[in-house]
Design goal:
With 319 residues, this protein is an alpha+beta fold. Helix 1 crosses helix 2. The strands form three sheets. Strands 5, 6, 7, 8, 9, 13, 14, 15, 16 and 17 form a ten-stranded mixed sheet that branches. A four-stranded antiparallel sheet has the order 1-4-2-3. A hairpin with a 7-residue loop joins strand 10 and strand 11.
Length: 319
Amino acid sequence: MTDTPISEDITPDDEPQVFLVTDEMPLERLDKVLAQLVPQHSRSRLQTWIQGGHVLVNGKVAKLRQTLREDDVITVYEQPAPEDHAFVPQPVDFEVLGETADWIVVNKPVGLVTHPGAGNWSGTLLNGLLHRYPELTHVARAGIVHRLDKDTSGLLVIARNEVSQTHLVRQLQARTMGRQYLALAHGRMLEQGTIDRPIGRDPKVPVRMSVESLSAPKAAVTHYQLVRVGEYGGSNISEVTCRLETGRTHQIRAHLASLGHPLLGDTLYGGRAIEGAARQMLHAHQLRFEDPGGAGMIEFTAAPAADMLNVIEHISWKS
């Protein structure tokens, strides 16, 4: 039993649930007893509440593994699940390059998750969009049309209404939306090429995608063009532009790695870090789409993030 009093800043204003331990209840660990008292919540969630100080025993903050005794009073302050905050407006820093009544083009910074998901239920681009543009609460996924990996920087278009979202999504499906990426890859790549290889979840490494031993494969097509070749530490480096026909998870990363040219800094796919490249050197630098409002083709370009520019500057370019 701990003598630490309950802290006012870790409990909500909602009325707690209170339970009395009787002689008819098994005198077991607190988390096991709670699992029987509030079966609508998982054991892991209950353990999180205990560790967070949201469960009291006899008015004092409980310990995860403490054993209960007869006549103990358990007080439980229920906490919302992380996903309950997924669509809550939050101030998030991101750059807006242009906007109309139909769309917004943002330059997503490195480290910002596009959409809430497991492990990242808050502080995402979606949360920031809802904060800056409250009307997006009426649009599915806050108007997000396509995504970028957390550590990939660059351009995204956001729809401001359902009509525009449908228009932009159809462009993606018809492969008429132009999305071009700038990438730094290990080795000397060919002048140009097309990688047409289905991508699926790697059964051995669930967080990685693969073109071999596929789980639920999906068609994926990437076109690449060599920009220049350089050298760093005695090894060749290729700067390439990649144009997507499809938008699969980790598509460019998995496709280039399948050719033996993983991205610099992309340790998940065999890349190595140079000059502080602590993430994949990939940037969505050009975006082209037809304006849903009828203004014709719209095009944006954005320079790479500072860490990628630093890597580029330290490579001895040959051509």
